[in-house]
């Protein structure tokens, strides 16, 4: 029984190390393919599909997030006589953490799943093998356009999300008699450019994570419809976990 227990632990560790090694190889191959000019038509298609179509859900998510932050903080700040800081606090919270993280999680759920489902379907229907027969590198044809699109579009979505989140906070602040002048003056006083640019740097990393993880599980999907479903589920779960982990590291590096 003890031997079987350690065998299971060994298989678990070796399996995850193999996955990590395959991830590293995919990242290396993708970086190597970046030396060649990407097909811009494919990049723009992915930017529209992965970025523009995600804007409505990002807008709703960040609008209600800004409103909730103000609901939770305005009462306490008014009780302490610090209502003039509400706008700055909401904008800092959205710009540093909630904007990039929530945008990354929402994008992982929508975009990461779409990337994995599309590529895994190509894998099980042997379309990727057809690309290799036609001397087309699957990494350059499939992974690179999605990587560029995610890394470019997610920061743009975060900018929209930051603005919408601040507007949502102001909408609730008006209910507490915090006028727009006080709200905007608080933002101008307390918010630094680094609070916003740090969140944008995070979003670039999150975009790369979503694209690489989605493409990895798509390229390594098992045959059949069940394999496509499992690959899509794993892609979303792993993307969200890695986003939270990398957010912790980036926050320590950028804001300590």
From TrEMBL:
Protein known as: ABC transporter permease
UniProt keyword annotation of Transmembrane helix present: yes
Membership in a protein family: Belongs to the MlaE permease family.
Transport listed as a keyword: yes
Cellular component terms (Gene Ontology): ATP-binding cassette (ABC) transporter complex
Cell location: Membrane
Keywords of this entry: Membrane, Transmembrane, Transmembrane helix, Transport
Alphabetized InterPro entries for the sequence: ABC_MlaE_roteobac, Permease_MalE
Membrane topology of this protein: Multi-pass membrane protein
Signal peptide: none
Pfam families assigned: MlaE
MF term (GO), any: phospholipid transporter activity
Main location: membrane
Transmembrane segments annotated in the record for this chain: 12-34, 54-71, 147-173, 200-219, 231-255
């Amino acid at each position: 029984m003890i031997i079987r227990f350690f065998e299971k632990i060994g298989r678990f560790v070796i399996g995850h190390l193999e996955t990590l090694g395959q991830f590293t190889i995919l990242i290396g191959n993708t970086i190597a393919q970046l030396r060649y000019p990407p097909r811009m038509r494919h990049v723009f298609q992915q930017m529209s599909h992965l970025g523009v179509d995600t804007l409505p859900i990002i807008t709703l998510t960040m609008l209600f997030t800004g409103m909730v932050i103000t609901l939770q903080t305005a009462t306490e700040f008014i009780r302490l006589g610090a209502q003039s800081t509400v706008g700055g606090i909401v904008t800092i919270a959205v710009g540093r953490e909630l904007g990039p993280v929530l945008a990354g999680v929402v994008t992982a759920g929508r975009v990461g799943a779409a990337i994995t489902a599309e590529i895994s379907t190509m894998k099980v229907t042997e379309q990727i093998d057809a690309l290799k027969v036609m001397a087309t590198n699957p990494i350059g044809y499939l992974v690179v356009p999605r990587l560029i699109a995610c890394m470019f579009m997610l920061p743009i979505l975060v900018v929209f999300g930051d603005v919408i989140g601040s507007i949502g906070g102001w909408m609730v602040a008006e209910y507490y008699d915090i006028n727009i002048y006080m709200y905007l003056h608080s933002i101008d006083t307390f918010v630094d450019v680094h609070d916003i640019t740090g969140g944008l740097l995070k979003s670039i990393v999150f975009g790369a994570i979503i694209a690489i993880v989605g493409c990895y599980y798509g390229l390594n999907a098992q045959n059949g419809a069940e394999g496509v479903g499992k690959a899509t589920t794993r892609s979303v779960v792993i993307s969200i976990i890695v986003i939270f982990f990398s957010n912790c590291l980036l926050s320590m590096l950028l804001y300590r």
